[in-house]
Amino acid sequence: MTEQFEFTSTENAVHPTPDTSVFGENVRADARRIVERYPESRSALLPMLHLVQSVQGHVSQAGIQFCADQLALSTAEVSAVATFYTMYKRKPCGQHLVSVCTNTMCAALGGDAIYRTLREHLGVGHDETAGPPGEPGSITLEHAECLAACDFAPVLQVNYEFYDNQTPERALELVKALQRGEKPAPTRGAPLSDFRGAERQLAGFFDDLESEVEGPSQATETLRGAQLANERGWTAPAMPDDAELPPLPERK
Ligand code: FES
């Protein structure tokens, strides 16, 4: 016997379309500029989500609706992407996002102690914000997986800029400075912005390209292997021009 289910519409089941008016004409113009970069408009979703975060400090339901409208996608498609990547925040972020690497190399060299120190100082845990989100001096704390800077372990990032070779004491001083409204220079790379400013850059917008991205991005540790190889005359075996490529796995 086939069971019969009855679906009823209740007031709670109604989801009104979010109001996207927070995204003014200038944001919509930026969104159009992003779309123009790609042959397929849907390819613009990742930078578009960063644009949304540069406006709101997170990806809200209105932000999801905005992206869907701009790119002719469903809100389910946008939500699937926004909830997959950790760089898209579902809760409003602080003025600064502090990401402490607690992956293997950093953890072994003190990353866990750094995270613990900052957690105790700020009184918040992973993905939580000390202070009113977006207000000056507010800090969102998160622990991060490998930040691809193991040669500088333990590291942390503020708004994705690197602070290398950290200790709990140095990290605490850094966070206190951020809370006072200071912007200590990262160890390498671009000068420090704030979370929303960094998000605008990730969307591909630079008001002053040179000053926003300028800064040394390499360091002795990173170049050490190449220098040693150079000094000792080590070279990698050449790739033969007629090298056979491995067969592609069969499609199932
Ligand atoms: S483990 Fe921390 S940067 Fe790789």
Automatic annotation (TrEMBL):
GO molecular function, one term: NADH dehydrogenase (quinone) (non-electrogenic) activity
Broad class of enzyme this protein falls into: oxidoreductase
Region annotation (Disordered) ranges: 1-20, 210-252
Hydrolase among keywords: no
Polar residues bias spans: 1-12
Any Pfam family hit: 2Fe-2S_thioredx
Gene3D superfamilies reported in the protein's UniProt record: Glutaredoxin, NADH-quinone oxidoreductase subunit E
InterPro entries (UniProt xref): NuoE-like (IPR002023), NuoE_dom (IPR042128), NuoE_N (IPR041921), Thioredoxin-like_sf (IPR036249)
Family matches, as PANTHER family: NADH DEHYDROGENASE [UBIQUINONE] FLAVOPROTEIN 2, MITOCHONDRIAL, NADH DEHYDROGENASE UBIQUINONE FLAVOPROTEIN 2, MITOCHONDRIAL
Name of the protein in its database record: NADH-quinone oxidoreductase subunit NuoE
Species in which this protein is naturally found: Saccharopolyspora rosea
Gene this chain is encoded by: nuoE
